[in-house]
Amino acid sequence: MDTTASTGTAIDITATPEWQALAEHHTALRDRTLRELFAEDPDRGCRLTRQVADLVVDHSKHRVTDETLRLLLALAERAGLRERIDAMFRGDHVNVTEDRAVLHVALRAPATTDLVVDGQDVTRDVHAVLDRMADFADRVRSGEWRGHTGRPIRAVVNIGIGGSDLGPAMAYTALRASSDREITARFVSNIDPTDFAEATRDLDPAETLFVVASKTFTTLETLTNATVARDWLLRGLGEGTDEGAVAKHFVAVSTNTDAVREFGIDPENMFGFWDWVGGRYSFTSAIGLSLMVAIGPGAYREMLDGFAAVDEHLRTAPLAENLPVLQGLLNVWYTDFFGAQTHAVLPYSQYLSRLPAYLQQLTMESNGKSVREDGAPVTTATGEVYWGEPGTNGQHAFHQLLHQGTTLVPADFIGFGRPNHELGGGDQGDGDMHDLLMANMFAQSAVLAFGRTAEEVAADGTPPELVPHKVMPGNRPSTTILAPQLTPSTLGQLVAFYEHTVLVEGVIWQIDSFDQWGVELGKVMARQLAPALTAEAPPELDSDASTTELVRTYRALRGRA
Ligand SMILES: O=P(O)(O)OC[C@H]1O[C@](O)(CO)[C@@H](O)[C@@H]1O
């Protein structure tokens, strides 16, 4: 049953019998410990571990019973989750506030998929762009595409921000082992001049290709950096270099052909996508071009196939066996019933160091909402704060709070069976470096879940006054995701898994996970304030007293009156 009445007004999900049943169940379960749940159900570790594509997902260390899962699934049914998933794949306008389809899944669907939406043959258009991207990437990689002076391209610099940066930047770091390193990729996002300066300081303009990536092609940071890049190029190529050189060193990725042309990039050198691809869901659109140039079209297509495997699972698996669905429902369980406000992502892989930053935009720009899609205020908590760092570094920084702090932080541990580098180490008979890394990961989730009681601590001979300090409360939930190895395919699977958990949470919370109105006002105000920072005469500001004073101080620091 859908919660949306034909008037377009949603019923309050917290007023449904399914929500009430969960609230009562939570009261009964909240003091049960994971120790007890494991003791009562020895098969739990195996039973609550499932697989999607190559990802083995262990949900056993969650504060749930079979009854919890049954009730969460009933809530999902009530919220119309299955119908919403089908609607998304069909191309219905599930982004209601922008009246758009949400079709990032079409970006990695096989060429045989039949999908016509709003009169557009989506699959044909997607594969036409992918083929153009592959052709371009091959030409750059082989040296056929050359810079203005005839030199081959050695560096590709992606200029973009948010969804036009984080996906390819995260994946480039993640897939360094898959890159042949012939071509280096750099990512410039921040309007802080430092970003551009550092990214290009050792690059030769004659061998550098800029990919200006912006869905709207109106984003201040990106257009400013692109202008700076054009100057850097023309200056670097030497006196008298004409604008014609730009064509050999700049390509654009956008949905906005007119703005690309106006900026001075020939639409011939533009790779398009469509308004049904949200910025933070655009990584598998042409926004991935810089990544494709760096890792090659073959590895890139493997990554898309990884995404597609998890998309297909979302589309076809029953909700009770659907892993992104279960993960999303568990997130709702902690956010709304346990009052958790944050969610830690702990990849035991240095290559995944940018994954938490990528997930911050994906999850928080999507679900950081306090108004439902029908315009009424939400009646639930929404949107966890995502954060994290690769293990084991995090262990030596913030895990203290995870283990003994007063806030509940559900965590995701992500690890791999095989390392990307075999470097030995561990000569005490305790395995190589990768074994030690993974032993740490398993130890952390076990300690979080099961802790150590005062009796156990005392039994070790701990002085009584220290016992309370050394007690480990345990009962702290986590998901563990294990994959055979970090490859383009498993990376794609992992990202698709997270993309779909966001959808699931948004459906329960009755919000539009695909708009981002909350980022607009700050952009408008920045544009209004900029002239006041640079004006020759002290500006008359119509701002609040704090902002006025900050502008005054800044001008003084810059030596302006
Ligand atoms: O790709 P664009 O249009 O430059 O936008 C960049 C980013 O800015 C945002 O609109 C937020 O400001 C994101 O949603 C988007 O990914």
UniProtKB/TrEMBL annotation:
Cellular location(s): Cytoplasm
GO BP annotation list: gluconeogenesis; glucose 6-phosphate metabolic process; glycolytic process
Keyword Nucleotidyltransferase: no
Active site: residue positions: 365, 396, 523
One Pfam family here: PGI
The keyword Cell inner membrane belongs to this UniProt entry's keyword annotation: no
Example of a GO MF term: carbohydrate derivative binding
PROSITE patterns: P_GLUCOSE_ISOMERASE_1 (PS00765), P_GLUCOSE_ISOMERASE_2 (PS00174), P_GLUCOSE_ISOMERASE_3 (PS51463)
Main location: cytoplasm
HAMAP family cross-referenced by the UniProt entry: G6P_isomerase
Protein's UniProt name: Glucose-6-phosphate isomerase
Organism: Trujillonella endophytica
Lineage: Bacteria, Bacillati, Actinomycetota, Actinomycetes, Geodermatophilales
Gene from which the chain derives: pgi
